[in-house]
Amino acid sequence: GTKNIWQLLYTLGLFNNTVLLNKIQSMRPEEWTWEFAENLYKDVVKESLYITNIAKCTQDDARHLPDSVYKEYLPLMIEELEYIKPKIVFALGKQVNSILLQRPISVSKYTSDEYEILTTPNGLDLKIYPSYYPIGQGSRNMSKAIKRITEVLKVSKI
User: Fold this and answer.
1) What is the pTM of this model?
2) What are residue 138's DSSP bridge partners?
């Protein structure tokens, strides 16, 4: 239910339902219902988006999760990616990219349509596009995330 992600997707033209966006922006997390989430996810499916997180949990106070939590969930993330077989993957933030690609990553070093290849245990090669984390303290990076993702989408023609 992170509001900035939905605003990012809307700004990029990847999520186009203004009514749902406005509702997301006005709702507090405890107001999300299963029915609302199901309606939202149906709309996401129409846009051919797949949104996930490496970590399948969060902190009550929105603190960053330690690397150990991401590493614990990484095999499940890889399994999801193998199942979905996405054309491209945008990984948001230094921490997530470093865990996913299993080496230190500096997101700022990636420009235009530069990407990394992640080869899964089953031999699937995935294009990983490191991008800025536009949430929480990363909100100041929203414009950088938009620029990066827009450039990739333009070149990828997806």
Assistant:
1) 0.89
2) none
